[in-house]
Amino acid sequence: MIQAKAINHIGIAVKSIQASRDFYEKVLGAQWEGEEVVVEQKVKVGFLKLGPAGAEVRLELLEPTSPESTIAGFIEKRGEGLHHVAVTVDNIQKRLDDLKAGGVRLIDEKPRQGAHQAQIAFLHPKSSCGILTELCEPRH
């Protein structure tokens, strides 16, 4: 068990953050929080929050910055849409070690740098009910 503390965010693959932003802001009423480039992952990330204070859901719009980006490959194969669900955890390396020991298939056996300087790692969808699942340990 990973003892997830909360849903951290929902990742959505898009061709263009700018083109997608209108829908989330004007139709759903989400609030724009900004964007960041994660060079290692070849992706630009736009952040939005949706819902009342204290119960917000965070959305990450993921735009590829290179044709070699995993997000570019995802969009090419599947089109724009839901990419992953991220959960907040403490001690991400211990969680990964425990999951591996328990037979869970991992994409990342070691955490890597994500947006907001968080440590992240992905579980393979074949081990997580068909959904790409991200573990996220926020920067302390």
Structure description:
The model has no long low-confidence stretch (mean pLDDT 95). The longest helix is centred in the N-terminal third of the chain and has 11 residues, at 17-27. This protein has 140 residues and is of the alpha+beta class. An 8-stranded mixed sheet has the order 2-3-4-1-5-8-7-6. 29% of the residues are buried. It has one domain (6-137): 2,3-Dihydroxybiphenyl 1,2-Dioxygenase, domain 1 (Roll). The chain is built from 3 helices and 8 strands; from the N terminus they run E-H-E-E-E-H-E-H-E-E-E. The radius of gyration is 15 Å and the shape is globular. It starts with 5 loop residues before the first strand and ends with a strand. The chain has helices at residues 17-27, 70-78, 92-101; strands spanning 6-13, 31-38, 43-50, 57-64, 81-88, 112-113, 119-123, 133-137. Helices cover 21% and strands 37% of the residues.
Strand order of the largest sheet: 2-3-4-1-5-8-7-6
Q: Rounded to an integer, what's the Rg over CA atoms?
A: 15 Å
Order of helices and strands: EHEEEHEHEEE
Strand content: 35-45%
Mean pLDDT: 95
Low-confidence stretches: none
CATH top-level class:
Alpha Beta
Principal-axis shape equals: globular
Task: Kindly state the percentage of residues in helix.
Answer: 10-25%
Intertermini distance: 22 Å
CATH topology: 2,3-Dihydroxybiphenyl 1,2-Dioxygenase, domain 1
Number of domains: 1
Question: CATH superfamily name?
Answer: 2,3-Dihydroxybiphenyl 1,2-Dioxygenase, domain 1
Q: Number of DSSP strands?
A: 8
Tally of contiguous helical segments: 3
Biggest sheet character: 8 strands, mixed
Q: How does the helix and strand content classify structurally?
A: alpha+beta
What CATH architecture label applies? Roll
